[in-house]
Amino acid sequence: MIAIAATAALIPWAAVAEPCPGNSQALGTERVIEVDAKTTPRVGRKHFPTTLPLHAKELVLTFDDGPWPGTTSKILDALRHECVRATFFLLGKNVEPHPELARRELAEGHTIGHHTYSHALLDRMPLARAEAEINRGIEEDDYAVYGQRRTVPITPFFRFPGFAANRALLDRMSERGIVVFGADVWASDWDPMSPDQQLHLILARIEQAGRGIVLFHDTKAQTAQMLPVFLRELKKRGYRIVHVVSAGARGILN
Fold first, then answer.
1. pLDDT for 32-87, tens place per residue?
2. What is the CATH number of the domain that holds 192?
3. Which phi and psi angles does 78 have, rounded to 5°?
4. Rounded to whole angstroms, what are the CA distances from 65 to 13, 79, 112, 161, 209?
5. Which of 161, 132, 133, 137 is CA-nearest to residue 149?
6. All residues at 6 or more sequence positions from 139 whose CB lies less than 8 Å from its CB, including other chains
7. Whole domain around residue 51: which residue ranges?
């Protein structure tokens, strides 16, 4: 992988978290940074050489595969209670029957990213077919959230299902101006475990990494059950949340 110059287009919006209504002890969102695909096409050290330029104990929370009835709403409730903003990488096939959940994510200040239509592993198919799968997901996501059916995403953030990408796909995403998100820490919540087991696992991994992009799935009941305790524990341990948005997206998100 080619090293990426990440800092030039990552511009802080706020240096200090705002008070959280109704929860004076909330974790909150410390600051917001803009990400520009021109200089930051890929982030996340699990698969790329670099990640977002986060300070020690700064985390970006991300959720894949939703929206899903029951679990997504519980996760949104937990985030709202702590005034934490996250990024949701949506599946088009799940957005179609549950557009109200995707619209709620946007309404509550979260960033909407894309994760294909059906969670296909894109590196196992021809480039044209893979791009059609990407575009179908973008179309369904943006139609549900913004009322616009388009293949040029309003927020050009994308995560490959299973991180299954190849050089041709990555180059194509760069050409389209779409930022590809990997992760620095994942919760492994695709594996069955209790909420308590998951809590201890993800906290240990975060402590080892010290900072980074954290990957969850808002389709998982164990994640939804664990999240309120997890957010409170982050506060106790001195971690801070950073919210990522697309460069120039202020007018869309606020």
1. 999 999 889 999 999 999 999 999 999 999 999 999 999 999 999 999 999 999 99
2. 3.20.20.370
3. -65, -45
4. 28, 17, 12, 9, 24
5. 137
6. 92, 149, 150, 151
7. 39-248
